[in-house]
Design a protein that fits this description.
single chain, 145 residues, Immunoglobulin-like, 4-stranded antiparallel beta sheet, 45% strand
C-alpha cells in the first residue's frame, strides 16, 4: 500500500507500507517507508481509524535512486492483522526534521481480500518494487530537496 500525492500531471509516492511473512515462518513484519527528512529518534506511529497510535522505531535509512527513505518496522501479531482486515484507514504519523507533523492516510479497502488471497510470487514482487523505485526517483526529480 502506498500514499501518492499529485505533482503536476503525475502522482508521486510519499509513503508506503509492506507486510512481509517469510515462507515457513510465523513472524510477520509491517514495514513503513517515509521520506528521510524525519526525526529518527521520534520513530513513526501507526493507528487504525480513530484508535490509539502504536510507536514503531526507525530501523534503517537508505538511498533509492535519487532519493532516500527511512524504514520503521513493527512485528505483527493476529490482533494487528485483524485491525488491518476490519479497519477502514491506516494512519501513519511522523515528525519532520524541522518539527512539523507528517500525517499520511492509507485506505484499507481490499486489504482482507488481498491478505486471504494467494501470495505474490518473488519475481512479481521484484518487478513491483522496481516500478516503485522508479516512481520514487521521479518524485525526487519533481520535488528535489
Amino acid at each position: 500500500m502506498d500514499v501518492r500525492l499529485a505533482a503536476g500531471c503525475k502522482a508521486v509516492v510519499v509513503a508506503g507500507t509492506l507486510l512481509t511473512e517469510r515462507t515457513g515462518g510465523s513472524k510477520k513484519t509491517l514495514r513503513i517507508g517515509l521520506p528521510n527528512h524525519v526525526r529518527l529518534d521520534d520513530g513513526a506511529r501507526i493507528s487504525f481509524d480513530q484508535g490509539p497510535p502504536v510507536r514503531l522505531p526507525f530501523v534503517e535509512c537508505y538511498a533509492i535512486g535519487k532519493g532516500d527513505v527511512c524504514v520503521a518496522e513493527y512485528e505483527v501479531g493476529a490482533e494487528l492483522i485483524d485491525q488491518l482486515k476490519r479497519g477502514t484507514m491506516l494512519v501513519i504519523e511522523a515528525t519532520s526534521a524541522a518539527g512539523a507533523p507528517m500525517i499520511y492516510r492509507l485506505p484499507l479497502a481490499g486489504f482482507a481480500q488481498a491478505y486471504e488471497g494467494p501470495p505474490v510470487q518473488p519475481k512479481v514482487f521484484e518487478e513491483q518494487q522496481g516500478k516503485l523505485h522508479e516512481e520514487l526517483d521521479d518524485a525526487h526529480e519533481v520535488n528535489p530537496r
